[in-house]
Amino acid sequence: MRYLIFFILFASTLFSLHIEMSQKSVANGKTALLEFEKKDGILYEKLILDKKEYKVYEHPLDAKKYYALIPISYYEKPSKKTIKLLYKQDAKEMSKTVALEVKDGFYKKETLKVQQSKVTLSQKDKKRAEKEYVEAMKVYNTSTPKSYITSEFIAPMQSKITSEFGKARIYNDTLKGYHSGTDYRASVGTPIVASNDGVVALVKDRFYSGGSVIIDHGHGIYTCYFHMSKFDVKRGQEVKRGETIGLSGKSGRVTGPHLHFSARVASEQVDPLQLIELLNKNLF
């Protein structure tokens, strides 16, 4: 059974444009999914929300549909939004709108104690972290036209979740943002598997996230695996769902060994487990 489907019918002299929306409202840090029927003479171009543009892609598994993902920033406040769909009908520019409500995710707070050098950075470490951030955002801002997804997403390991996405994080009594992923309990050396098919976009030891692997699943969807102790893949390598990509560790800014699993959609950081559930229930 899919999520609650929101049906909107737009009247037209020639046809009825049918849009399926995964939900009427979505919390900050979560993702919404829209689907469009493929029709002769209709060319879907893009969606616009708050001046940001989002691409419309061919459905990875249903040749009769297109789809689009709308990631909502963690920092977005509760509000009523309007998503504008731009499309062409027989070469004529057209547009329609869809209402979306952003609600509060009510995320909890979490206090952590780490090495002070990981909170108050030296100039050298600061430059390194900034360089790595720019490098990663270059990856996330790349939207591969091809989708590598052919089956449902899976968890990167079967283990207890020790920290959920979205918790406001206080390092050494100083607020330093929020938890951008989901943490799994994992002693050093626990195998980590790819959540789905894709291409490895980055393999690197980084200041904050330690041993890092980022997988491009196509269509602007990325999954990330941090604090690893060993890599079993290389950049540019194609991987399959369930394939071991390396071992867990305690590298980077951590309080102990674990796997930090996160996701990006259209470069926006989103709740990885909600994204996986959304895609699995709506695309398969």
From TrEMBL:
M23ase beta-sheet core domain span: 178-272
UniProt-recorded Gene Ontology molecular function terms: metalloendopeptidase activity
A Pfam family the protein falls into: Peptidase_M23
Source organism, top-level taxon: Bacteria
InterPro entries in the record: Cell_wall_metabolism_enzyme, Dup_hybrid_motif, M23ase_b-sheet_dom
Name under which the protein is recorded: M23ase beta-sheet core domain-containing protein
Record organism: Sulfurimonas hongkongensis
